[in-house]
Amino acid sequence: MDRTDLLKKLMFLLAGAACLSPWIEPPAALFLGIVLSQVMGHPYEKQNNKATGLLLKISVVGLGFGMNAFEAAKAGKQGILFTVASISLTLIAGLIAGSLMHVNKKTSVLISSGTAICGGSAIAAVAPVIGAKENEISVSLATVFILNSVALILFPMIGTWLHLSQSQFGLWAAIAIHDTSSVVGAAHKFGAEALQIATTVKLERALWIIPVSFIMALAFKSSKNKVKIPWFILFFVIAMMANTFFPFLHSADQIIVILAKRGLTLTLFLIGAGLTREALKTVSFRPMLLGVFLWALISVSSLFVIVHSIL
Predict the structure, then answer these.
(1) 240 vs 72, 126, 250, CA distance in Å?
(2) What is the pLDDT of residue 44?
(3) Rg, C-alpha atoms of the chain
(4) What does the longest C-alpha to C-alpha distance in the chain come to?
(5) Are 113 and 134 in contact (CB under 8 A)?
(6) Which of 100, 140, 246, 255 has its CA at a distance of 20 to 30 angstroms from the CA of residue 39?
């Protein structure tokens, strides 16, 4: 290993460590990761995806120790019909628009699934069951991650400008922002109540990976791969139950929640670092246009319904 590589690794690790401090906000961590990746490259690119996925799951479970099961159930019930309608609308619109834009069918399915459910996690789950190729997965992931990064910064600004309530913003973020990490980051910036609602509704939404994957497996009969079940959501529920029914754990729970929030900030840094020059080069005009169209559709339509309802 030469001195240049060693210096890059050291700078990357120091930047990651800085994201664990309380002075780095989620949007700043994402931006820092993008800048470092573009300027000096990613010294740990091969390990990035696995580390990001694991850290996200652990951090989300940690957030469960700061939530009340009864309040979360109320939030989940509030968003269930909205979730079903928005997922169905996005998937159908994505397939139709993808066909009209002449986007590869499997790429359309991946971008639509990522937008409808939970970003990169949905793409990773659906890709094997439809037999997607590596370039189709890369294009879809890059498209969703770019828009996801924009949403993390843009949504809290729009929510403040429109004077959305905590519950309105939490529900909107869960419906319209792609990845769980950015949903939590945006909601955390907006407020504690928004964070609880957004996390609960988004994880409820993530469970739709299972039926959507089964449907896609039937539609693409050539695939023999098993559907991946997001088991970490079960641990999130267990953590939430522990916080609700065992009050003597509250002092420890508060520490866990603080660590979980810093973990999510570090997750966003890694996501930003994952947007390397090579990843950005994979994104072509038509898939990006499809991604922007679907994101605009779900963002605007869900915001309209939320603002003009009693939610």
Answers:
(1) 9, 28, 11
(2) 87
(3) 19
(4) 61
(5) no
(6) 140
Q: What is the pLDDT of residue 6?
A: 87
Phi, psi of 226 (to 5 degrees): -80, 150
* Length of the chain in terms of residues written: 311
State the residue for tokens 């309209």.
304
In single-letter form, the type of residue at position 197 comes to I
Evaluate whether 170 touches 306 at the Cβ level (below 8 Å): no
What would the pLDDT profile of 97-126 be if each residue is shown by its tens digit? 999 999 989 999 999 999 998 888 788 778
Rounded Cα distance between 269 and 308, Å, is 35
Tokens of 87: 């997922």
Exposed, middle or buried: residue 195 (CB in 10 Å: 0-12, 13-18, 19+)?
Answer: buried
